[in-house]
Amino acid sequence: MILQLGAGAPWPSDLDGALGFLMGFPPFLIYLILGTGSALENIVPLIPADTFVLLGGFLSEVGGLDAPVVFLTTWSANVVSALLVYWIGLAYGPSFFQHGWGRLLLNHQQLEHMRRFHQEWGVVAIFLARFLPGLRAMVPASAGVSRLSWWKVVPPVATASAIWYGTLVWLGSTAGSHLHEIKKWMDQANLALMVIALVVLSGAGLWWWQTRRHRHQDPT
Q1: 136-157 tens-digit pLDDT
Q2: pTM of the complete model
Q3: What DSSP line would sit under the chain, residue for residue?
């Protein structure tokens, strides 16, 4: 099966290479690749899962894929892997931060602050952070370490992922000859979201430093 991109269409080289890579496989393997990338994004944030989901939506119109299957594959894989990260944080996080390197990263007082924050703001924080590059991979783990109940974790993770991946699949499936423009817009949006994520991480780093210094200065 050969994908016709249109005469003289100015496709960027990264999209051209990604499309060529995906089109070299039968549909069921493309679904597997899309699902695997969406799952690994929660473990290796540098994986460009968004680009492949966008292209999956595009291929649902021109390459023999089915848009609802693309969405269900990527969404379910992303949610399941996020909940796996949450479970690992829940099962092993508290004990890890009680000894050795873990205790150097977060002390008991800081863990208590995290737990109180997640109990009060966890649902909202998880939902919003799932749209931010880098942070979307961190919040399930921090929710697990903070022992946030699963019924406060699953809804925001599933809803945010559905909105994000649903939007990407829809954009890809309706892109037509404007795929390169949509990809450029998506890169700009991700850059803006990255800046927001860096601001949030900077605030978290400042909190970590202040609470660490406060503990060292407290004679008790």
Answers
A1: 888 999 999 999 999 999 999 9
A2: 0.80
A3: ------TT----HHHHHHHHHHHTS-HHHHHHHHHHHHHHTTT-TTS-HHHHHHHHHHHHHHSS--HHHHHHHHHHHHHHHHHHHHHHHHHHHHHHTTSHHHHHHS-HHHHHHHHHHHHHHHHHHHHHHTTSTTHHHHHHHHHHHTT--HHHHHHHHHHHHHHHHHHHHHHHHT-GGGHHHHHHHHHHHHHHHHHHHHHHHHHHHHHHHHHHHHHHH---
